[in-house]
User: What shape does this take?
Amino acid sequence: MTTAAPETRPPAGKQDRHFVTALSRGLDVLSCFRSGSRMLGNQEISERCRLPKSTVSRLTYTLTKLGYLHYVKESGKYRLGTATLALGSAVLGRFEVRDLARPLMQELADSTGTSVALGARQRLSMVCVEVCKGNAVLSLNMEVGMRLPLGSSAIGRSYLAVCSETERADLLDQLKELDHLSWPALKQGIEKSLATYAELGVCTSFGEWQPDVNGIAVAFHPGNGLPAMAINCGAPAFKVTAEYLLNDVRPRLVDLVHKIEEGLGVRS
Assistant: This one.
């Protein structure tokens, strides 16, 4: 589990007078509770948000009062509260694309032996809003709510391939600011993947997100004012090769996305 700070604040030198820092910090605290982090204490939240523990204590107190966090006395830690659940359920309920995509995704997962995920961008990550797994004994440990990095995952790179040039430039700047040391290699991987998207219609990540994972992805615009989303097919590298994904899975994934677009009425 990464302990990097949540990516909420504007990059240095780009402060916005309309940006409410207190609200941003509160959302940072909620963002710490990622997939696998069921309960967190103030010290853990402080380290993840890179905020003073005294500030975190006030934020968790307020969020608990509002129902967004629940304090567990036995452990002295917090877990997400029912207000957060209600908010998340309301958002997922508005994604018509999930209901349309789910049976198509499951069919693809079963026929290819991969894990298939539908994701939407949240800051510098892609959040899985639907996950379908094949019948294979060994598959990727993915679940709804899991976050994949925008720059190194196939699903994140596919988002970069279809977003506007202005948004892409801004996101790439943020990725560079996040980690100057690894940026040259990350930039090279992104550029190579974008070239693959232009040529083959998919973005790739072969051992770049995780050394033992291969994946491809296609992004699309769901319409109705929603931002771009993307669908990823991935599996352990020892189970599926890059060649298999590009030659066998790719046309099926592209066809799946076309069917979703047709179902949403955004493809003629």
User: Anything to note?
Assistant: Residues 1-6, 8-13 have pLDDT under 50 and may be disordered. The longest strand covers residues 125-133. Residues 2 and 48 are 8 Å apart (CA to CA). The two ends are 42 Å apart (CA to CA).
